[in-house]
Write a structure and sequence with these properties.
One of its GO terms (cellular component) is cytosol. One of its GO terms (molecular function) is AMP nucleosidase activity. This protein has about 200 residues and is α/β, with parallel strands linked by helices. It has one domain: 3-Layer(aba) Sandwich (Rossmann fold). The protein has seven helices and seven strands; from the N terminus they run E-H-E-H-E-E-H-E-H-E-H-H-E-H. It has a seven-stranded parallel β-sheet, with helices on both faces. Strand 2, helix 2 and strand 3 form a beta-alpha-beta unit. Helix 1 packs parallel to helix 2.
Protein backbone atom coordinates (compact mmCIF):
# COMPACT_ATOMS: atom_id res chain seq x y z
CA UNK A 1 0.00 0.00 0.00
CA UNK A 2 1.46 3.34 -1.09
CA UNK A 3 1.35 6.22 1.39
CA UNK A 4 0.23 9.36 -0.42
CA UNK A 5 1.23 12.36 1.67
CA UNK A 6 1.46 14.58 -1.39
CA UNK A 7 0.22 14.39 -4.97
CA UNK A 8 1.34 16.45 -7.92
CA UNK A 9 -1.52 17.46 -10.24
CA UNK A 10 -0.90 18.22 -13.91
CA UNK A 11 -3.71 20.16 -15.61
CA UNK A 12 -4.57 23.03 -17.89
CA UNK A 13 -3.83 26.70 -17.34
CA UNK A 14 -7.00 27.24 -19.38
CA UNK A 15 -10.50 26.42 -18.15
CA UNK A 16 -11.68 24.68 -21.28
CA UNK A 17 -15.38 24.79 -22.08
CA UNK A 18 -16.87 21.97 -20.03
CA UNK A 19 -18.30 22.62 -16.58
CA UNK A 20 -17.73 19.03 -15.44
CA UNK A 21 -13.96 19.46 -15.78
CA UNK A 22 -14.05 22.54 -13.54
CA UNK A 23 -16.26 20.86 -10.93
CA UNK A 24 -14.06 17.75 -10.86
CA UNK A 25 -10.94 19.90 -10.49
CA UNK A 26 -12.46 21.64 -7.45
CA UNK A 27 -13.62 18.30 -6.05
CA UNK A 28 -10.14 16.80 -6.46
CA UNK A 29 -8.68 19.67 -4.45
CA UNK A 30 -11.34 19.13 -1.77
CA UNK A 31 -10.69 15.37 -1.60
CA UNK A 32 -6.94 15.87 -1.27
CA UNK A 33 -7.48 18.35 1.57
CA UNK A 34 -9.97 16.06 3.34
CA UNK A 35 -7.51 13.15 3.16
CA UNK A 36 -4.64 15.39 4.31
CA UNK A 37 -2.78 14.92 1.04
CA UNK A 38 -0.75 17.99 0.10
CA UNK A 39 -1.36 19.33 -3.40
CA UNK A 40 1.75 20.05 -5.47
CA UNK A 41 1.06 21.90 -8.71
CA UNK A 42 2.27 24.60 -11.09
CA UNK A 43 1.34 27.57 -8.84
CA UNK A 44 -1.14 29.29 -11.18
CA UNK A 45 -4.35 30.94 -10.03
CA UNK A 46 -5.86 30.64 -13.52
CA UNK A 47 -7.50 27.80 -15.41
CA UNK A 48 -8.08 24.29 -14.13
CA UNK A 49 -4.90 24.72 -12.08
CA UNK A 50 -6.50 27.53 -10.11
CA UNK A 51 -9.67 25.52 -9.49
CA UNK A 52 -7.76 22.54 -8.02
CA UNK A 53 -5.86 24.89 -5.72
CA UNK A 54 -9.07 26.67 -4.68
CA UNK A 55 -10.75 23.37 -3.84
CA UNK A 56 -7.87 22.41 -1.58
CA UNK A 57 -7.35 25.82 0.03
CA UNK A 58 -11.08 26.28 0.73
CA UNK A 59 -10.94 23.04 2.75
CA UNK A 60 -7.78 23.97 4.69
CA UNK A 61 -5.52 21.80 2.53
CA UNK A 62 -1.79 22.29 2.09
CA UNK A 63 -0.97 23.60 -1.39
CA UNK A 64 2.58 23.90 -2.70
CA UNK A 65 3.08 25.78 -5.95
CA UNK A 66 6.21 25.46 -8.08
CA UNK A 67 6.80 27.99 -10.84
CA UNK A 68 9.76 29.11 -12.96
CA UNK A 69 10.81 32.73 -12.62
CA UNK A 70 9.80 33.67 -16.18
CA UNK A 71 6.17 32.61 -15.54
CA UNK A 72 5.92 34.41 -12.21
CA UNK A 73 3.62 37.15 -13.46
CA UNK A 74 1.17 38.85 -11.17
CA UNK A 75 -1.84 37.77 -13.20
CA UNK A 76 -0.70 34.12 -13.29
CA UNK A 77 0.87 33.15 -9.97
CA UNK A 78 -1.36 32.32 -6.98
CA UNK A 79 -0.39 34.49 -4.00
CA UNK A 80 -2.43 32.60 -1.38
CA UNK A 81 -0.62 29.25 -1.34
CA UNK A 82 0.79 27.42 1.67
CA UNK A 83 4.19 27.53 -0.02
CA UNK A 84 5.48 29.01 -3.28
CA UNK A 85 8.73 27.71 -4.76
CA UNK A 86 10.44 29.54 -7.62
CA UNK A 87 12.82 27.75 -9.97
CA UNK A 88 15.17 29.01 -12.67
CA UNK A 89 13.60 27.04 -15.51
CA UNK A 90 10.97 24.46 -16.51
CA UNK A 91 13.24 21.46 -16.05
CA UNK A 92 14.05 22.45 -12.46
CA UNK A 93 10.33 23.01 -11.89
CA UNK A 94 9.48 19.47 -12.99
CA UNK A 95 12.30 17.96 -10.94
CA UNK A 96 11.13 19.85 -7.84
CA UNK A 97 7.50 18.80 -8.37
CA UNK A 98 8.66 15.19 -8.73
CA UNK A 99 10.79 15.37 -5.57
CA UNK A 100 7.94 16.82 -3.51
CA UNK A 101 5.33 14.25 -4.61
CA UNK A 102 4.37 10.67 -3.73
CA UNK A 103 2.24 10.32 -6.86
CA UNK A 104 0.82 12.16 -9.85
CA UNK A 105 -2.67 12.85 -11.21
CA UNK A 106 -3.40 14.30 -14.64
CA UNK A 107 -6.60 16.23 -15.33
CA UNK A 108 -7.67 17.62 -18.71
CA UNK A 109 -5.29 20.12 -20.27
CA UNK A 110 -3.35 20.94 -23.41
CA UNK A 111 0.17 20.38 -24.73
CA UNK A 112 1.87 21.30 -21.45
CA UNK A 113 -0.29 18.87 -19.47
CA UNK A 114 0.45 16.04 -21.91
CA UNK A 115 4.16 16.86 -21.88
CA UNK A 116 4.24 16.64 -18.08
CA UNK A 117 2.29 13.37 -18.08
CA UNK A 118 4.44 11.70 -20.71
CA UNK A 119 7.69 12.85 -19.16
CA UNK A 120 6.76 11.52 -15.71
CA UNK A 121 5.54 8.20 -17.15
CA UNK A 122 8.72 7.90 -19.24
CA UNK A 123 10.78 8.45 -16.09
CA UNK A 124 8.83 5.59 -14.50
CA UNK A 125 9.36 3.37 -17.55
CA UNK A 126 13.12 4.03 -17.30
CA UNK A 127 13.16 3.21 -13.60
CA UNK A 128 13.86 6.74 -12.37
CA UNK A 129 10.92 6.51 -9.96
CA UNK A 130 8.25 4.03 -8.91
CA UNK A 131 5.49 6.42 -7.92
CA UNK A 132 1.87 5.88 -9.03
CA UNK A 133 0.66 7.91 -12.00
CA UNK A 134 -3.08 8.51 -12.33
CA UNK A 135 -5.19 9.80 -15.19
CA UNK A 136 -8.57 11.25 -14.18
CA UNK A 137 -10.61 10.66 -17.33
CA UNK A 138 -13.30 13.28 -16.72
CA UNK A 139 -16.24 12.81 -19.06
CA UNK A 140 -14.19 10.60 -21.36
CA UNK A 141 -11.76 13.47 -22.09
CA UNK A 142 -8.85 11.08 -22.56
CA UNK A 143 -10.68 8.27 -24.38
CA UNK A 144 -8.96 9.02 -27.70
CA UNK A 145 -5.55 9.24 -26.04
CA UNK A 146 -6.11 5.87 -24.38
CA UNK A 147 -7.16 4.46 -27.75
CA UNK A 148 -3.90 5.74 -29.25
CA UNK A 149 -1.87 4.14 -26.46
CA UNK A 150 -3.70 0.84 -26.95
CA UNK A 151 -2.87 1.05 -30.66
CA UNK A 152 0.78 1.64 -29.77
CA UNK A 153 0.67 -1.61 -27.77
CA UNK A 154 -0.96 -3.47 -30.68
CA UNK A 155 1.62 -2.11 -33.13
CA UNK A 156 4.54 -3.12 -30.91
CA UNK A 157 5.76 0.37 -29.96
CA UNK A 158 4.62 0.22 -26.34
CA UNK A 159 4.94 -2.72 -23.95
CA UNK A 160 1.81 -3.68 -22.05
CA UNK A 161 3.62 -3.41 -18.71
CA UNK A 162 4.48 0.21 -19.55
CA UNK A 163 0.93 0.96 -20.71
CA UNK A 164 -0.22 -0.37 -17.33
CA UNK A 165 1.93 2.18 -15.51
CA UNK A 166 -0.88 4.62 -16.26
CA UNK A 167 -3.73 4.17 -13.77
CA UNK A 168 -7.02 5.35 -15.24
CA UNK A 169 -10.38 6.08 -13.61
CA UNK A 170 -13.24 8.53 -14.12
CA UNK A 171 -13.84 8.73 -10.36
CA UNK A 172 -11.53 10.50 -7.93
CA UNK A 173 -11.93 8.02 -5.06
CA UNK A 174 -11.48 5.09 -7.44
CA UNK A 175 -8.29 6.63 -8.84
CA UNK A 176 -6.83 7.30 -5.39
CA UNK A 177 -7.55 3.68 -4.41
CA UNK A 178 -5.72 2.44 -7.52
CA UNK A 179 -2.79 4.70 -6.72
CA UNK A 180 -2.54 3.44 -3.14
CA UNK A 181 -2.68 -0.17 -4.36
CA UNK A 182 -0.18 0.33 -7.21
CA UNK A 183 2.72 -2.13 -7.29
CA UNK A 184 5.51 -1.03 -9.63
CA UNK A 185 7.19 -3.55 -11.89
CA UNK A 186 10.79 -4.30 -11.04
CA UNK A 187 12.91 -2.65 -13.70
CA UNK A 188 16.67 -2.13 -13.76
CA UNK A 189 17.61 1.40 -12.77
CA UNK A 190 20.03 2.05 -15.60
CA UNK A 191 19.52 5.80 -15.56
CA UNK A 192 20.07 8.32 -12.81
CA UNK A 193 18.08 11.54 -12.38
CA UNK A 194 21.24 13.52 -13.13
CA UNK A 195 21.19 12.11 -16.68
CA UNK A 196 17.66 13.23 -17.57
Amino acid sequence: MNVLNSICVFCGSSEGNHEEVISQAILLGEKLAEQEIALVYGAAKIGIMGHVAKGALDHNGKVIGVIPEFLKLKEVVHQGLSELITTENMHQRKMKMHDLSDGFITLPGGFGTLEELFEIITWSQLGLHQKPIGLLNVGGFYDHLLGLLENMVRRGFLKMENFELLLVDDNINGLLEKMRAFKPAQVPKWLKPSRT
